[in-house]
Amino acid sequence: MRPLLSTDESRALDAAAATAGGGSEALVERAARGMATRLGEILDRISGGGAQGRRRVTALAGRGANGADALAALRVLRERGRTEAMTAVLAFSPGRGDGPADAQSARLESLGIEILDFAAERNASLEAVSSAELLLEGLAGTGAVGALREPAAGLVEAANRARGFRVAVDLPAGLGSGGAVFEADATLMVAPPKELAFRPSLRAYSGTIHFIDGVFEPGAGSGSAVHLPEEADLPGLVPRLAPDDHKGRRGGAGIWAGAVGTTGAASLACRGAVAAGCGLARLRARTEIWQALASRIEDGLVAPLGRLRDEAAFAAGMDALLAGPGWGRSAPAPALLRRLLETELPLVLDADALGLLGTVRGKLRRKAPLILTPHPGELARLAGVPVEAVLDDPLAVARPLADRYGAVVCVRAVATWIAAPGGRAFVVDGFEPSLAVAGSGDVFAGLLVGLLARARAGDPERLDPAALAAAAALAHASAGRALAGRLGFYGASDLAAELGSIIHRASSAERRVPGRRLRP
Q1: What is the DSSP letter of 194?
Q2: How many CB atoms sit inside 10 A of residue 232's CB?
Q3: CA 273 – CA 446 distance, rounded (Å)
Q4: Where would I find the beta strands (DSSP E) of 401-440?
Q5: N- to C-terminal Cα distance for the chain?
Q6: Which among 507, 495, 497 has a CA at the least distance from the CA of 430?
């Protein structure tokens, strides 16, 4: 699990490392080696160039550290024997020695790499940009303040019009500045990663993010309160599967979902809970729809809603609860929500239950975990802010709500932002557009309540609501990628089936399986 740094934390790390680690040149060399390896892989995969020696690679470099990284990566590619036609377009006048990139540019010409000063050789520079099959952008990074100025802004606009594969160094130039932004197909981000790149309004500019490790010392950024889990972390987050598990030890999930016209949401939430591996999913449905749901849900039990005290008694026999998918907001939902909030069981509120949360008066005093799963629009309504505020900085909006409700707030967007009370946070980078399918969120909510039920019943050490929300987001994104590769577009029912395989594999990862006995 990687620490995720704010812009200020990244700048502080750069400054401290340059002072303590042999200067900025040592950092540049380490970054260049890692970036050159990734660039070589990308060059081998991009199409349309024919023979290696005839393809053009163009680097765009500002005078700062990002420009130095880009130029040094170009040099390392050549030193490793790459024979592409390489050009460096400089957004500064070389030979003045007034920036880290200038020292790097002086080393390129002896390797047969063309150097162009954009201010003095504009036409040739623009031709190098438009004809490149790979563009490596190192115009500005975390040290930049404000919108890009000329000539960097003009180079970014030219690069965005070009047909070549665009690669950003560390962060796309102009990201979060309010002006022109380099639109990268891939970003070579020096680890620890920067949280700015994962904000919903900005995520698409970075394309596929590749982390460049080994630039900073081990443990750099470990003081951050925000972390980025990756797929390899999933086995350490989900409840473990014991060889002698039975359905009671795997927990029961109580689900309140569905209304006339939205029975599919209830069905998919049940399927998500089953995919999580919980022992029993039990759905409580409105009287007018429960029979229809009972005939279509084979993996769970369906019963009609009873009186409020009956529902509270039923809830007490479960291990985790979910309310909201396709639920509607008419009676008895508001009163039932208040009863569920009074329970001492883990509770997930999704969709319509979030819309009803404002009807609950006074401060919530739950001791048991509470998880809210809003999309950006729902979070904006809960917090009373424009949706743009959520998209621009989810944590700034989610953290006050987490403290107000004593809840984990799991914001589902192009990346999932998870804020726990007290400031702890996770960001899960989904970046899988195929997940934007009706019912995807219902499956996610069911998956989460199923994981909570399993943890409470059989693995209390893993009953960490924020970590389980991160696990659900990781598995959900992984399932989406796998299905997109295999099926292209797919439905939410496919998603639930894929999740069962992913969660089972992760839950079983720590099991010790004895080998075949060998004869003495």
Answers
A1: B
A2: 9
A3: 4
A4: 408-411, 416-419, 425-428
A5: 43
A6: 495
CA atoms within 13 A on the CB side of 352: 21
- Residue 49, pLDDT > 80, answer no
User: CB of 192 within 8 A of CB of 224?
Assistant: yes
Mean pLDDT of the region 120-145? 92
Per-residue pLDDT, averaged over 45-63, amounts to 77
Tokens of residue 256, six digits: 């309140």
Please identify which residue in the block is written with the tokens 């200038």: 102
* pLDDT greater than 70 at residue 334: yes
DSSP β-bridge partners for residue 166: 135
User: Facing residues of 302 across strands?
Assistant: 283
Tokens of 105: 């540019």
Dihedral class, residue 51 (left if φ above 0, else alpha if ψ from -120 to 50, else beta):
beta
Which residues contact residue 503 at a Cβ distance below 8 angstroms, ignoring those fewer than 6 apart?
238, 275, 276, 277, 447, 451, 475
Q: Look at residue 261 in the predicted model and tell me its pLDDT.
A: 92
d(CA 331, CA 31): 59
Query: In whole angstroms, what is the distance from residue 436 CA to residue 253 CA?
Result: 25
DSSP-derived letter for residue 209 is E
Nearest-Å Rg of the Cα atoms of the chain is 26
pLDDT digits (tens, 9 = 90+) for 295-308: 888 888 999 999 99
Tell me 232's DSSP state. Answer: G
Report whether 462 contacts 237 (CB < 8 A).
Answer: yes
DSSP letters for 347-411: EEE-THHHHHGGGS-S----SS-EEE---HHHHHHHHTS-HHHHHH-HHHHHHHHHHHHT-EEEE
User: Is the bond into 332 cis (omega within 30 degrees of 0)?
Assistant: yes
Sign of CA dihedral 132, 108, 44, 64: negative
Amino acid (one-letter) located at 468:
L
